[in-house]
Amino acid sequence: MQVARGIHPAILSKAAGPGLRALARRSAVPVEFDLRLPAGRLPEQAEVAVYYVTSECLTNAVKHARASFVACRRGSRTTSLEVTIADDGVGGADLGHAPGSSDSSTASRRSAASCASPATGEGTTLTVRLPLPLTDG
Q1: pTM for the full model?
Q2: Pair 98, 80: CB distance under 8 Å
């Protein structure tokens, strides 16, 4: 596992795009990216957040959703970075019941993310919105 508190994968030192492409290459299901990220670097917090959210969604698509395809796309907002990740899996995901999550972390995720995941085999769609520029706190 590449994750350690405060230490990010080396691929992120080059910007979010290469890191996301590396995730797609390692994914057990085909991934289509249509992110059209802005030229230059995003704030570090945004790059790290998009990388880890995408990584978690790809992992969940394989482990839990039994998906055969995942699509990642960027919305057309100018004051925030909006990324939508959708799979064609079984659905039924619930942001509010993530293992190990506390009430405060759940509230924080809900304020930045929306999730549609009917348990009817229609897949899961997660949209994350991060304000730009990001501020600490």
Answers
A1: 0.77
A2: no
